[in-house]
Amino acid sequence: MSELTAHLWIQFLRKYGPIPQNDNMYDEAIQRAGRYLKFEPITFESPYLKDLKDNFYSETPRSIILTGTAGDGKTYLCRKVWEDLGGDLDEWNSEKKLRKIRIANGKTLIVIKDLSELRDDEKQVLLKDMSLSLHNPISVMLFLIAANDGQLVEAWERIQGNSKVEEVRNSIEDALFMGTSQCGDFPLLLFNLSQCGSEKILERVLCALFDHPGWDGCENCHYSSKDIAVRCPIWENLHRLKDPLFKKRLFSLLTLCNYNGIHITIRQLLLLVTNALLGHPETKDQLMHCRDVPKLIQEGKAWYGNIYSNVFGTNLRRRRLPEIFEVLKGFGIGDETSNRIDDLLIFGLDDPDENQRLYFECLVGEDEYYGANKQYRTLQNAYIEGEDPDAALEFFEALIKQRQRLFFTIPDTDAEDLRLWELSVFHYAGEYLNEVIGALAKGNKVPSRIVSRLVLGLNRIFTGMLTSSDQYLWLATSGSYSQSRISNMVEGRISVMPDKGEYVSIENDEWGMIFLAVNIDQETSVRLPLHLTRYEFLSRVAEGALPSSFSRECYEDILSFKSQVLARYRDVQSKYRTLLRTEDEMLLRFLALDARSQLIERQVVVKFEGQG
Amino acid sequence: MFPEKLPQITFGAERPPSMWVDEAIWGHRLYDEQIPWLIFLEFLNVLWSEERDEKAFIETDYNKLSYRPRRLLPLRNIVFNNPKLKAIMSEHADDSARWRHWLKEMEKIRGGVDSPFSYLRDRFNNFEDFCEIVEMLRATSIEGSSNKQFTSKFIFPYGPDCLYEDLDARNFTPGRRFFARTGELAYLMLCRSSYAQDILGYIRPIVLDPRSRWNQLVLSLHSIEKEKLSTHSHAYLPYKYLPDFDRLAKDWLDLLRRDLPGYDVLPHLVSLLGLNMLLYFLRRGKEHIADSPNITIVCEIISPKKTVVRELADQSYKFNNYLSRDAIVSYIDQTRDSEDWKRILAHPDRNALARDFLKDNFMWDPETSAEPAILLDMLKDAALQRHAQHNAKIHANWARSLGLASRRNTRTVRYAPTDSLLKSLVYTVVDGRMELHKFLEELYSRYGFVIGYAQADAASLIGSDKGDIQAFRENTQRLEMRLVSLGLLKRLSDACAYVQNPFIIGGGCRN
User: A135-144, A208-217, A601-610: lowest mean pLDDT where?
Assistant: First the structure.
């Protein structure tokens, strides 16, 4: 292997990156580049492939719809199944829209690798046939159809159909909406590739990338040197990408995206890792070639290809960043900070606090490539001396990079002390990952202090009062309307700790969705899906400091949850209503705060004697 | 072309309107200052009166509605004409001193009530409780914080004993400014729809049940004295049937069937009532000047900067704003082509005949005698002048008050629906879940709302410029984001999203 192969490999790898000509990167295009440059594409087993194969080889195979966002690998999966079932590759690469193959159990499989390639009339015929075959228990036809969810819904919507078509359509929509794979009672499965956690896919992508023989050419390269002064930034980045701590933090971010309802496609993940490795703001398309490296090293600009900033697409100079970078930027890492961290970065070894000096030494000082390198120390000194205002601006830029680096390098053991997640907009994200997602995944309970804090947040929103009550969830209205800002008429309260069927808990469902469950009695429970943004919102409200950025967004959400809880609460209460009422007087319950800001009830009696 | 109209009504001893032009097109009558909440309250007054007489939503003869709303002046004095309540509460520590001072104060200021308020003492354990209840009713009232006279402020409709008519505070006669009969028309529309009795079944337990808890509470402030009621009649809705009536009724029925908790459904009923009344106003105007009553309402989902959609929203707002005026002109002009008018022109005594004709058909008596053509022009001028005073402002006032039009981020008013209107629309239109584009289609076919590209295309608003298409796509995306933040949309991917209603028909809710 020579430096030339390394050169070609990086050239091939760039094809996966955010280069402009690559906006419509498809399985086909990568295949073509691979053939031309003589590299095997980065391949890894899709988590769905086994299920697909098993199904088509089984005694009772079912039809399958593959859906998901563009870039989830639908075409790729179809091709793999086709190959596996003995389909002809030339036929695959032909212009045909519809391919047929006889499979083991005497059935015929019809494969549509992209539903949107079909004309409207063709779709009509196809989907009607499919509906007929699904209703016929002895049908020999099977289908494998790939389509993005929008096209799928629209195509089914457009069929002028009978009730049979409608039944199939509803079952598909239900599966799509509820996130299940079985479609009604039909022999039909729906795999939504967007449902697979992107952190799991990333793991596979990274393994495939690291193991790729393309890197072999780098081993002997002059710039893969141990000497930091001439070390290639791509090589440096590759090693940092392999660092378990770095991977862990990156997985955390993707997990949080998942739990915030944001799906990241395989294509976007490939963009991400390629940019992390090759990103550099001062090269063509802001992605390095091998030929850029000597010059960058010579000019002392190699460290601009900082992997920690590349992850957020900071190197890219495009009007609209690819989705993955927009999403990751949403965490605000680099811009968000705490005094503690900034003191550490600014005063470094001059900090009077010895602890801080130690942190600086091991977190910043020891990394001479991207940490306290020569340039950083110069800027730091100039800033502290305070003579040149331009230098200050440059230093602030460098600070952003350092904060981003710290996010990926502060060891777990120091994460709590340094409050790692204050480097992002989600201060409670670490807790959410460990004590909510982590605990539930292991089958443990979420600590009660977290439940109490969320209940406190809910109470403040439900009543509009700055209370500190967290042992009951208080249901209040303004008399007429549950949705007004301040509600001071008590409807009831629900105990947080288990009490005669009442309790509040954080749970997950069979698909891993997390929610806060308000249990009103043994049969009645109202659930609030607890994604990261809501979790942060409620926690911050409870803490008292509400960031203006999310005040509106979640507030309405929580109010409509209140409306749902109230509706169910009243249903339950109505069972006992006769016991609560007397004929000649009425008890009204007003809410007030006591001296310790606890919610208390003030009861007002109204008498009806002598009225008409 | 427009649907056939019912015969004009006669006024007998009561003073008739000064002319019959707006009334002929829209009925007797729509009024700009009667905003949707007040339309709703007047409607409830009619409904409750008819319910007492066991003929709720039953119209045996067209336009013969006659009902007797209540006045409830003691209650209204207590809640809205009682400024010193809080001061008395804090100035005096002793309960009986508080009552004494307050009763004395009320002797001075009470309006339209002769008997004392001392009956209240027996109804409450103490003055503080009484105070708390009054404060609560005030806080939840309608128009309670406005600077209107106290007889034009209203208690939230917790039940039948909260319903009373608008009054003029000078002489306590029926006020025609805020209860201007628009609620009577709404009542008649629902009567003539196909779902009236269904609606009644749902609305009864919410606002017409005298035994309901909150109604009992308000009842505790009522005086036991009987009051004399006056009869209201002469409401006139010109059309036997219109699809608009069924649309309003169906929207209400869908909302009511969702089983929202307590009174939470009422603000949504008010929004949809306002919207459908506004569309009734615009459509009747439109069909007097064009072949079809179809209205388009281009809605900007508020964007931080100027967009093509904002321009179109602004244009469609302006266009609709002039419809009613043009309708007046066209309605009077069509007289010219009528056989009757042609006969008059040919008659030697045409001036006198024309005058009689205008008196009969438009209830308008010109001050001077003149040539028929001149008389007609005079009528037009007078009608336009009268129209400009109030009815021409209906579109602007109602659209704003129901959250359809706004000035936000701009200097001019255009259609830009608020979050609360969007919420009402989702609660009305969506049962369980609905694909986003279908939802947009539904809003277009029901209410003429243009939000996405497909609707703009259907309404022929897309020019050759590709930017227009993009602008409407972005408008849809903004709606998507708004609905997400209201918790009303579930996004499966960038290609597919479902609008979801947490309240499904038949009660219960979905997570």
Answer: A601-610
Residues B476-500 have a mean pLDDT of 86
Of the candidates A382, A258, A370, A361, which has an alpha carbon nearest to the alpha carbon of residue A314? A370
Q: How confident is the model at residue A15 (pLDDT cuts 50, 70, 90)?
A: confident
pLDDT-derived band at B509 (thresholds 50, 70, 90) equals very low
Alpha-carbon torsion A518, A521, A522, A526, what sign? negative
The pLDDT confidence band at residue B511, using thresholds 50, 70 and 90, is very low
The encoded tokens of residue A586 equal 């009425």
Residue contact B220–A150, C-beta within 8 A: no
The number of angstroms, rounded, from the C-alpha of A244 to the middle of its chain's C-alpha atoms is 20
Q: Which residue does chain B place closest to A553, by CA atoms?
A: B485
Q: How many CA atoms lie within 13 A of B202 on its CB side?
A: 25
Gyration radius of chain A over CA positions: 30
* CA A313 to chain CA mean position, Å: 17
| A157·B435 Cβ contact <8 A | yes
> Per-residue pLDDT averaged across A132-151, rounded?
91
Say yes or no for a CB contact (<8 Å) between A479 and B485.
Answer: no
Lowest mean pLDDT among A258-267, A525-534, B71-80: A258-267
Q: Residue A508's beta-bridge partner residues?
A: A514
Tokens 């809205």 sit on residue:
B80
Closest C-alpha among A511, A546, A550, A543 to residue A527: A511
Give yes or no for a contact between B476 and B494, defined as CB atoms under 8 angstroms apart: no
The distance in angstroms from the start CA to the end CA of chain B is 48
Give the DSSP letter string of A191-253: EEGGGS-HHHHHHHHHHHHHT-GGGHHHHT-TTS-S-GGG--HHHHHHHHHH-HHHHHHHHHH
Give backbone dihedrals phi and psi of A189, rounded to 5 degrees, phi first.
-115, 145
Distance CA A123, CA A117 (A): 9
Nearest by CB to A567, from B123, B137, B509: name it.
B509
At residue A96, the pLDDT reads: 87
- Asked if the model's pLDDT at residue A610 lies above 50, the reply is no
- Contact between residue A435 and residue A506 where contact means Cβ atoms under 8 Å apart: no
**Do residue A606 and residue B124 have CB atoms under 8 angstroms apart?**
yes
pLDDT surpasses 90 at B315: yes
What is the three-class DSSP state of A515?
strand
In this predicted complex, what is the ipTM? 0.75
Provide the pLDDT for residue B510: 41
Tokens coding A155: 């195509």
* pLDDT given at position B351: 93
Give the pLDDT of residue A38: 86
What per-residue confidence (pLDDT) applies to B508? 45
Mean pLDDT of A90-104: 87
Contacts of B190 (CB under 8 A, 6+ apart): B43, B57, B196, B199, B245, B248, B249, B252
pLDDT in tens, B118-171: 999 988 889 999 998 999 899 889 987 888 999 999 999 999 999 999 999 999
Q: Which residues contact A178 (CB under 8 A, 6 or more apart)?
A: none
A339: which residues sit within 8 A by CB, 6+ positions away?
Answer: none
First to last CA, chain A: 101
Q: Residue A343 corresponds to which tokens in the numbers above?
A: 């003191």
Rounded to whole angstroms, the Cα distance separating B462 from B456 reads 6
Q: At B149, which helix (H) or strand (E)? A: none
Q: Where are the alpha helices (DSSP H) in B290-307?
A: none
Chain B hits for A561, Cβ within 8 Å: 487
Q: Using DSSP, state whether B76 is helix, strand or coil.
A: helix
Q: Is the dihedral of CA B445, B447, B448, B450 positive or negative?
A: negative
Interface mutation vs chain B, best among A480, A482, A552, most B CBs within 10 Å: A480
Distance from CA of A404 to the nearest CA of B (A): 29
